[in-house]
Amino acid sequence: EDEKTVEYLSQHYKLKDGKLAITVVNASSLKAADSNGFSDPYVEVLINKNKKSKQKTSVKKKTINPTWDETFTFNISNAVQDMVNITVFDKDKFGKDDCIGKLTIPVVNVLKN
Q1: Are 30 and 59 within 8 A, CB to CB?
Q2: Alpha carbon of 92 to those of 24, 55, 62: distances in Å?
Q3: Rounded to a whole number, what is the distance in angstroms from the first to the last CA of the chain?
Q4: Is 83 helix (H, G, I), strand (E, B) or coil?
Q5: Residues 6+ apart with CB under 8 A from 71
Q6: If 0-12 CB within 10 Å is exposed, 13-18 middle and 19+ buried, where does residue 35 land?
Q7: Element (H, E) at 7
């Protein structure tokens, strides 16, 4: 039954060398990662955890309710199997940036909506 579902979705959502535009709009009530009670958030979006596809928003300073409204375009080769990986980070001046949250969404779910 799962194979039939995948076959159906492959036929209806095929994007041969297709493009997917993703707009990072905003976030609200993010975790305060800094001692001042705020974060310096940015969003990283990539396909299938492929670092070559990585795109980042700008950093919004001292906020837990950022607005980006930034759009990125990705090449999609398999709409059924490809995954969109979204991670929100807090930018740090020293050391590694802190992960505030992350989400993985199948591309086919994005296309359905």
Answers
A1: no
A2: 21, 18, 11
A3: 23
A4: strand
A5: 21, 22, 23, 24
A6: exposed
A7: helix 2-12
d(CA 91, CA 9): 38
Per-residue pLDDT tens digits for 54-109: 999 999 999 999 999 999 989 888 878 889 999 999 999 888 999 999 999 888 88
At residue 16, what is the residue type? K
| Cα–Cα distance for residue pair 68/96, rounded to 1 Å | 22
Can you tell me the distance from the alpha carbon of 24 to that of 86, in angstroms, rounded to the nearest whole number? 10
Structure tokens at 48: 């299938």
80 DSSP assignment: T
| Cβ-based neighbour number of residue 86 at 10 Å | 15
pTM of structure:
0.83
Q: Beta-strand (E) ranges in 12-95?
A: 18-26, 41-47, 55-56, 67-76, 83-90
